[in-house]
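Progress note, sequence design subtask.
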């Protein structure tokens, strides 16, 4: 009656294990038992029928992605509603009363929140949790949020962004990059070139989120405040996203998609530099040079709006003592070294806040609004991404060579590229060629959208204020096509 060699107790334990596998969220891929199915379509249909929540979760995720492209529309609607509400209030009797305060428009505030790109995935995460509760019960949904989802990357990015945006770090970054900028003219165009080449490559040593923070802040001070043309503005953001995505691959710890696989696949800094690093440096230089040639008239027009002195003048006039800068650097190093230990990252950040207070004469108050919004964005993305393995895994494991590279690149546009490489690391006995193709495709497409790479929301948060109604995702996508094409050339065609 029982399988040969299994006692009643062993069989009971086996059944319990199988039930635990099936009820876990997200459901383990091995629990579907679809190894005998030949085509990807058959596997997807089987998994959808076995777990209908998969389809619902993916539909919610796709709606969230569509929302990111519609966010500027909600912002424009909110602005019109605020203007209409203000005019109606001015014509009311309440406005004539002494000391009257204009009430807020609930609908305008609600639309404004829907237009906040950083809030999109968090808002739709509420719908996802409601769906999980409907299918499985609140207890399962709560267990999923508490045990199955890891927010390490979100916590890390919040802290790194907060530290990297402090006055001593910007003072140091600006002084170092200013010397390079002055060496090639010191104009806004010089800052543009340096921040889009040297800045992203520094991400290999200070992590991509830190590099994105410093580059975005300095681009705001030295380029965007002079009101560049629309095409120059979008080209700058698109190029920044693409260059940061590949600029962090000279080492094994700085780029999120590389960090996910460096341990399981045994990739060290020497391997990353020889296999990916040199290609990345060449791609960064070629992409920046290509955009510089295409936009040289826009850059020349930008330079006419500012004197050479204004372009060279530092953002922070007060010098910061070396000891304060060293202290900030040590806290940044602690955060980087403990990236996968959120408790240690948070403890270090608490000590950092105390250090900022003790040196407040040379620091400005730590701004947490932008870092927390980015962290909220990434946390929502992680919640949604946990339910996408059911359809991503069969696509990755059944593609080969060139098709695998483009599949990884395309999937990165719709999901964090770190999750793409993480799923690939779970597949046993993959060849070096497969590992290279997946990773190269993920980093090559890391600039395509806001959600393609973890540092991208950081850049969006810091630069969207320079765009009327926020960044248009469609225009940003168009702006990334040229540097992504260059990435394809260096990481695929010239391999």
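Output:
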């Amino acid at each position: 009656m029982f399988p040969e060699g299994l006692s009643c107790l062993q069989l009971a334990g086996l059944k319990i294990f199988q039930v635990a596998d099936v009820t876990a969220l997200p459901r383990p891929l091995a629990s579907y038992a679809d190894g005998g199915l030949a085509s990807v379509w058959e596997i997807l249909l089987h998994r959808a029928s076995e777990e209908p929540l998969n389809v619902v979760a993916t539909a919610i995720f796709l709606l969230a992605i569509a929302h990111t492209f519609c966010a500027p529309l909600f912002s424009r609607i909110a602005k019109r509603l605020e203007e209409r509400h203000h005019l109606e209030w001015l014509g009311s009797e309440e406005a004539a009363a002494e000391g009257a305060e204009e009430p807020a428009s609930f609908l305008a505030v609600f639309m404004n929140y829907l237009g906040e790109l950083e809030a999109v995935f968090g808002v739709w995460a509420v719908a996802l949790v409601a769906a999980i509760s409907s299918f499985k019960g609140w207890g399962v949904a709560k267990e999923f949020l508490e045990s199955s989802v890891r927010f390490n990357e979100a916590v890390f990015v919040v802290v790194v962004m907060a530290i990297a945006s402090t006055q001593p770090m910007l003072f140091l970054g600006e002084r170092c990059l200013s010397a390079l900028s002055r060496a090639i003219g010191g104009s806004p165009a010089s800052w543009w070139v340096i921040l889009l080449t040297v800045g992203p490559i520094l991400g290999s040593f200070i992590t991509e989120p830190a590099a994105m923070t410093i580059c975005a802040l300095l681009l705001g001070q030295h380029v965007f405040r002079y009101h560049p043309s629309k095409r120059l503005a979008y080209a700058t953001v698109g190029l920044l996203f693409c260059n940061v995505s590949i600029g962090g691959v000279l080492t094994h710890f700085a780029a999120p998609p590389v960090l996910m696989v460096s341990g399981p696949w045994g990739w060290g800094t020497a391997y990353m530099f020889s296999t990916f690093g040199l290609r990345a440096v060449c791609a960064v230089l070629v992409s920046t040079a290509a955009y510089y040639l295409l936009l040289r008239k826009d850059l020349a027009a930008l330079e006419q709006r500012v004197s050479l002195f204004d372009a060279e003048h530092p953002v922070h006039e007060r010098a910061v003592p070396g000891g304060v800068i060293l202290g900030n650097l040590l806290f940044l190093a602690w955060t980087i070294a403990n990236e996968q230990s959120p408790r240690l990252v948070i403890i270090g950040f608490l000590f950092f806040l105390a250090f900022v207070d003790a040196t407040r004469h040379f620091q400005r108050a730590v701004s947490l609004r932008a870092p927390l919004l980015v962290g909220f964005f990434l946390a929502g993305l992680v919640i949604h991404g946990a339910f996408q393995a059911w359809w991503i895994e069969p696509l990755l494991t059944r593609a080969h060579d060139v098709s695998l590279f483009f599949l990884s690149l395309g999937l990165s546009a719709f999901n964090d590229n770190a999750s793409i490489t993480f799923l690939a690391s779970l597949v046993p006995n993959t060849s070096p060629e497969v590992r290279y193709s997946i990773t190269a495709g993920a980093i090559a497409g890391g600039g395509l959208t806001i959600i393609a790479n973890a540092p991208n929301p950081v850049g969006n948060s810091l630069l969207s204020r320079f765009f009327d109604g926020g960044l248009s995702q469609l225009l940003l996508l168009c702006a990334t096509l040229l540097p992504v094409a260059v990435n394809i050339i260096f990481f695929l065609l010239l391999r």
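The first helix runs from residue 8 to 23. Work on this subtask will continue into the next period as scheduled.
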